[in-house]
Amino acid sequence: MKIRLGAFMLPSAGAAPADFERGFAGQNPNYYQRGLADCARLLRQVEDLGFDFCAFSEHHFHLEGLEVSNNPVLLGLWAAMQTRRLRIGQMGNVLPARNPILLAEDLAMLDQMSNGRMCAGFARGYQARHVMTVGQKMNAAYTAANDPDFAEHDRVNRELFNEHYAIIRKAWAEPLFRHEGAHWTIPPRGIRWDHPATRDMAPGMVGDSGELEQIGIAPLTLQVPSSIEIFMPFTMSPATIEWSAQEQITPIIFSPIEAHARGAIELYREASNAAGHRLDWGRGLGHFREIVVADTDAEAIAIQERGLGYIWTRWHDWFHFNEALRHPGETGVIPNTPASMRERGYSLCGSVDTVARQLEAMIKMLNTDLIVPWMAVGPAPIDGLLKSNELLVEKVLPKLGIELMQRKPTLRDEYDGRGWRQQSEVEDGGA
Question: How far apart, in whole angstroms, are the C-alpha atoms of residue 218 and residue 172?
Fold first, then answer.
């Protein structure tokens, strides 16, 4: 059996839990540099181990230091410069609060600079202080289960998300395009641009009147736009799952609870089939998990409780993340503890034998070929994370007869194969 692994790294500030509790860890330069150093070691390791991709998140104003990941595209470029094969993604760009033209350009540049390794991830945004501050000029709204105005905010959020996504796909796929929507007119009317160089070198951009009629981005993506893998992370919304299936987007399911995960798989498969995209049950989507492997169960639990067990319980419970751990029909408060994360199946944690049993049960239950381990870069001890990944790939997966596979990019026909790295190395007297 073959599966893909994608490393999700926020990262967080490189500090122990006690350091976070002293306050303003996100603004401490030493903690940020430590977090980058740990992340760099993990990036190089997961590439060597055969992971398919890495991905970073987008959250702003994180003085707390628990999610110091305000620009996933820039972090991705930093990652691309340290690697050669690992694909670079986001989990994800918060689309309702972003300028879609600028984001389309940034992602195309990342694709070119990484020699076609960009994969894109788009999220709707659940943190109010981020979405409604950064996106205020577009009247962007966050969407979260604990929002008293959820219905209206969710409507506005989805409307912006869908339009911004459509603009990005047009910008990647069409040398020249225009767009008329509820929120954007691209280009705006009445822009005079009767430049002779534009008329000669970009025919079609300017109309007979001398006004701008279409725009395009440069550079375009190096990959064929329709082949670029798009992720929709942290999703459990039926509407989002159905939309992802119709658009052939890869949702990454958040809940480890069997009934919820299987329901999402069935809905995705039904919507895919209805759209003419035939899929085997369980395929076309992935699943988040924390995976911590150590020599003993006790050692793995110690790593988990200092890492994601700390981040989740100190930060994410307020956003109702623990609802993803609720069993059907269960009432009352879900225990906000690292043990609850393990017992309810989000954290696969223990010795090689323990994690092998847990992973085998998960794959059998979900028939998945894509798992996205959430690595708690920052508070978790880096040596423990590195050893965990090594044990996972070199001990756990062979025990289950699992091989890792990587998705190969499809590059544009006009690309001659001479990337900037190869050209610069040859010119410098290298390979």
Answer: 9
